[in-house]
Amino acid sequence: MESRNDTAISVFLLLGLTEDPALQPLIFSLFLSMYLVTILGNLLIILAISSDPQLHTPMYFFLCSLSLKDICFSTSTIPKMLQNIQTQDQSITYTGCLSQVCFVIVFVVLENFLLAVMAYDRYVAICHPLSFTTIKTPNVCVLLLLIVDALFNTLMLLRLSFCTALEIPTFFCELAQVINLACSDTLIDNKLIFVETCIFGGFPLSGIIFSYIHIVSSVLRMPSSEGKHKAFSTCGSHLSVVSLFYGRGAGVYISSAVIDSSMKTAVASVMYTVVPSMLNPFIYSLRNRGMKEALRKLISRLASLS
Fold first, then answer.
1. Are 211 and 122 in contact (CB under 8 A)?
2. Are the beta carbons of 72 and 149 closer than 8 angstroms?
3. Is residue 8 scored above 60 in pLDDT?
């Protein structure tokens, strides 16, 4: 294929889920509803935690950060898709596409680290309860997030030479799909992705596994069955989110390796990006007694104001 210089590239084309005009209104309504539910659900989590002093603890600080991440993640991809459907224009600018790639990487890696730090938080709370407040202070929590954000700056530079066929078979610009469009040698890029995946994905996952091995070991040594149940219940919602995050990641990786269909690739990308951000608030609000109470108070307060 004919190679083009980066400065000559003006647009990419996002093929989305389907090109059938009859299905476009349905897809628009579905994604708009999912986006609004995601924003509202995560915003309620943030407001409930902020307004309840009893939830001003490291665990809920990280939960609030996770909800904020979900809002930003969804906002970086879905509105552009809705705009494309509404205007019947599949194009996205070169700058906009690379910006989406960077934002998606940032928020995916951020969720990796947040889930790992939340697992460590549960490990300290269950295995070292007497030293919990000294080990996990709010200042340390903020510092951890700042360090993570600083590491993401290294992922913001992409140097690619593209071909003339610039069609992306998903509804947003995904790193792997953009690299597939490159005419230049992508061996270094693929190696870099592998190394970054091992660092930003493997290390957090190892930390989660390490934390829960110690948690399970400590809980099994508890003499009281009530204590065991209480300890496991505090980890239930986090384990559900961890399973959803890494399970969908493995599913997308396997599907991309064995599926050669733009439609199925697009559906896999939806399962990886849109659905989890929408489900996370429900998982935490339904399985966490503290969140249920805080949401009940917040909704009652909002109802009284209206």
1. yes
2. no
3. no
